Amino acid sequence: MDNKHDILTLLRSVAEGATSPEEALLNLKEVPFEDLDYAKIDYHRSIRQGASEVIYGEGKTPEQIKGIVTAMGERGCRNILVTRIGQEAADILCGAVPAEYHPLPKLAVAFPEEREHRGSIVVATGGTSDMPVAEEAALTAETLGNNVTRLYDVGVAGLHRLLSNLDPIMSARCIVAVAGMEGALASVIGGLADCPVIAVPTSVGYGASFGGLSALLSMLNSCASGCSVVNIDNGFGAGYLASMINQMEGL
Known about the structure:
By secondary structure, the protein is an alpha/beta fold. It is built from eleven helices and eleven strands. It has helices at 4-15, 21-28, 45-49, 62-74, 87-96, 131-143, 159-163, 166-171, 185-190, 213-220, 235-246; strands at residues 33-35, 40-42, 55-56, 80-83, 99-102, 107-110, 118-125, 146-151, 174-179, 197-201, 227-229. A five-stranded parallel β-sheet has the order 8-7-9-10-11. It has a four-stranded mixed β-sheet with strand order 3-4-6-5, with helices on both faces. Strands 1-2 form a two-stranded antiparallel sheet. Helix 4 (62-74) packs parallel to helix 5 and helix 6 packs parallel to helix 11 (235-246). The longest helix is centred in the first third of the chain and has 13 residues, at 62-74.
């Protein structure tokens, strides 16, 4: 049992009398994870959270990444996200399994599969230099089944660029604001939008930005209501949270 659909199919089979409760129990008792020695793959992640386990590629060898993804693919996992993966590891992965690699955010999607996209998420950046983090957020959200609008290089140094895009901002269900330097973009968008804003500080900036710490503190101290903040350069976390917000019923 690797996803909610499988569980529901099994339960309906029991309700219809095609499967005995004992058989169903045996299926549900399958090991919920697989031990590869170097990794323990959580196959019940999609049942609990609605999405397969995401692989953090940095620090893993290409062979480890390939092994984890291959095992997940054999169990029917699709649209497997691999974040922070370098070109060498990506080449090995793409040679072993169906996968799409996006070099700017260093993100791969293994066993890609079309799915219905819903709602509306906006991903905005203060500058072009913030795009790698923003693309990680945007591609994560798209892979999880969301419509994403990108508004790049609309920072406060030229506020008219942001104000000329009010329609997508006003119609979004969730907005991801990605910015380095002083990180003011999140507060500005938070003062314009009536939906949750997820602020992503980036490590872009000169010395006094302290590798994104300045933007992080600015975003944490935002006076705009409805702003939450993820860790420095954590585009994946922002995209995942935006997906959860966007797909909540009744939002």
